[in-house]
Amino acid sequence: MERYRGTLGRLFTVLSDVGCDQPKVGAARVVAAVVYRRSIVSIATNSLRGDPWQARYGDETHTTHAEILAIKRATAHLRVRKLPGYDLLVCRLCAQVNGDIIGWGLAKPCAGCQRAVDDFELNRVYYTITSGVVGTSTGRVYHLSVD
Ligand SMILES: [Zn+2]
After folding, report:
1. What residues contact 118, with CB distance under 8 A and at least 6 apart?
2. Given Cys at both, which of 2, 30, 94, 135 links 105, Cβ 3.0 to 4.6 Å?
3. What is the DSSP string of 50-102?
């Protein structure tokens, strides 16, 4: 039984809504959330500010990926060192030249963020592939109904 049935779309809608309100950061507008039992524990967007956590998990020094910030916020909020049983959701929003959001793009975490996922023992990563389609690190693909 897949416990996200019926709610994965709702969670990604929340991530999309948050991302729509954010300015584009570098080449992408990405929103990530740490989720436990269908509830969002922390949420973050990619940032133009560097962060020591990003430096630990990648060679990026001038920006910080949304995944890293979401994990950092979750551990701070929960006051834990690991996140077993928690999932990470990642959404990339695609925009036209005029800034209108037109859909989702591939948000598979980079190697550095995947190392952070492994280090913090998160359960599973769900990431947008294209509009209405979400994949996981285990190869499953979900087609979501998006309003
Ligand atoms: Zn990354």
Report:
1. none
2. 94
3. --HHHHHHSS--S-B-HHHHHHHHHHHHHT-S--TT-EEEEEEEEE-TT--EE
* Ligand 1 center–CA 146 separation, angstroms: 25
Distance 67 CA to ligand 1 centre (A): 6
Q: How far is the CA of 123 from the centre of ligand 1 (A)?
A: 17
What's the CA-to-centroid distance between 109 and ligand 1, angstroms? 5
Rounded Cα gap, residues 93 and 82, in angstroms: 28
Between the alpha carbon of residue 70 and those of residues 1, 2, 6, the distances in Å are 27, 23, 23
CA of 115 to the centre of ligand 1 (A): 9
Q: Which domains does the chain have, with CATH numbers?
A: 8-143 (3.40.140.10)
The pLDDT tens digits for 34-75 are 999 889 999 999 988 889 999 999 877 788 999 999 999 999
Token digits for 60? 């990026």
